[in-house]
Amino acid sequence: MKVPVIVLSGFLGSGKTTLLMQMLNESKARGLRPGVLMNELGRQDVDGRILDEHNGAAIERLLDGCVCCSKKEELADSLKLLIKQQPDLIYIELTGVANPEEIADALTEPGLLESMSLQQIITVLDSEHTLEYNSIFSSDKELVITLRKQMEAADYVLINKADLVSSSTLDKIEKHVRKYNDKAVITRTVHSRFDLSKLLEPIKAYARTGAAASSFRILKSIGTVSHSPAHQQPSPSSRSFSRIRTVTLPFPSSKRLSKAQLERFMSEWSKHLLRAKGYVSLVDQPFAMLMQFAGKRTYWEPSEFQGAPYVVCIGIDLDQQRLEAEWKHLFT
After folding, report:
1. Source organism's superkingdom (predicted)?
2. Can you tell me the distance from the alpha carbon of 276 to that of 266, in angstroms, rounded to the nearest whole number?
């Protein structure tokens, strides 16, 4: 019996992990045993730890690269490890710069095709920034193509953070999506919340009855996708994240910062940062806090993390030496 796969796509900070947490909770409420493959650009795992704290699902992690390119060879091994745990379904959360078509193609490889079936691709859009991406990344054609592919490949498109923009902006985003995808179900969401029953109820029935996989509502036909210019393998310069850099900033031993210091630092680097996240030590908190910077906003959440604090910064052409120097200066 093939394991159903749902792929979560979308640019950095759009709300994929928030959606994944919701889907895991909904899956368990329906008596389903989910598995998760998480892919992160940075060397430190942040999103996987978030899931560990809030859900406890079986998780495989691929760090410091994109499964479409540098981690593609590890994808099959990670999925096979999940299959051995006999989940009822598998969620794959991609990095913000991954082309979901490449994952659809990878699932047709021998060894995976026999054991799993792609059911849906869900793409999450950040309504505050989607319309600006073409101009923001005008110097990086490959990245623009990849963001377009994320819309083209989707069965569901969530126009997320709908509460932060006007209705006219939401209308423009929907029209923009329809330029590239006239079949996807488009939903306007806040905190990535939408009705998951149409996705999960057929999987629940399949898990209980073992009905033929064809009983699923499969919108995408895998095995027919073509490789986009953004992800052709031979040349590293052709990869969509060729200009995207990650820098991990550690906390000096026993040092702490205030929320104001961290928020000011993020604000000062906001022109260069696409995303920042990590576990930080604050002067007024006995335990580490989860900090997430996305869309020029900083979010805070209590955490059970007990390791060495750190922040992962993701941006285009980040000046690592300057970033690290200014970070170090914060503690002096």
Report:
1. Bacteria
2. 8
For the beta carbon of residue 266, count every other beta carbon within 10 angstroms.
20
> Within 10 A of 222 (CB to CB), how many other CB atoms are there?
18
Q: What is the pLDDT of residue 43?
A: 56
Provide the residue type at 137 as one letter.
F
Q: What is the 3-state secondary structure (H, E, C) of 125-191?
A: EECCCHHHHHHHCCCCHHHHHHHHHHHHCCCEEEEECHHHCCHHHHHHHHHHHHHHCCCCEEEECCC
Residue with tokens 């970033």: 323
| Range in 22-31, 114-123, 232-241 the model is least confident about | 232-241
- Chain centroid, CA 129 distance in Å: 16
Coil vs helix vs strand at 207: helix
If residue 199 lies in a helix (H) or strand (E), which one and from where to where? helix 197-209
Q: Which residue is associated with the tokens 């209705």?
A: 167
Terminal Cα distance for the chain, rounded: 59
Residue 263: CB atoms within 10 Å? 16
State pLDDT tens for residues 56-71: 567 787 755 555 554 5
User: Which of 135, 139, 141 lies closest to 176, judged by CA?
Assistant: 135
Which residue in the block uniquely carries the two structure tokens 């104001």? Answer: 260
Amino acid at 189: T
Task: Name the residue with tokens 């691929």.
Answer: 62
Distance CA 137, CA 6 (A): 28
With beta carbons less than 8 A apart as the criterion, state whether 106 and 39 touch.
no
How is the chain split into domains, by residue range?
Answer: 3-237, 243-330
Q: Could you tell me the CATH superfamily of domain 3-237?
A: P-loop containing nucleotide triphosphate hydrolases (3.40.50.300)
CATH classification (class only), 243-330: alpha beta
Q: Tell me the torsion sign for CA atoms 209, 214, 216, 221.
A: positive
Residue type, 155: D
pTM for the model stands at: 0.81
